[in-house]
Amino acid sequence: MESHDTGFDDLEGVSDKNRLLAALLAFCFGIFGAHRFYVGKPGTAIAQLLTFGGLGVWAFIDFLIIVFGEFTDSRGYKIT
Q: Which structural domain, as residue segments, surrounds residue 29?
């Protein structure tokens, strides 16, 4: 298997996605799942899109999780 250096991607538990951008996307477009598309979770992003962010509840909870630094990307790495 070939190894490659991609910066923050290789650090265990650290995502290359930006937490501030994810929080802004969740706040402004959370009911459309924009923040989930951004972090590479298209399945749940589409679910949010179809349910208008769980009628806003799911999107709001995601926003809080992002703000408190516990939201993860598609690989399970925390958004920094």
A: 14-67
DSSP calls for the chain: ------GGGGSTTB-SS-HHHHHHHHHHHGGGTHHHHHTT-HHHHHHHHHHHHHHTHHHHHHHHHHHTT--B-TTSPBP-
Number of domain units in the chain: 1
pTM: 0.82
Residue 19 domain flag: yes
Amino acid at 2: E
- Is 33 in contact with 48 (CB distance < 8 Å)? yes
Task: Dump pLDDT digits (tens) for 15-53.
Answer: 999 999 999 999 999 999 999 999 999 999 999 999 999
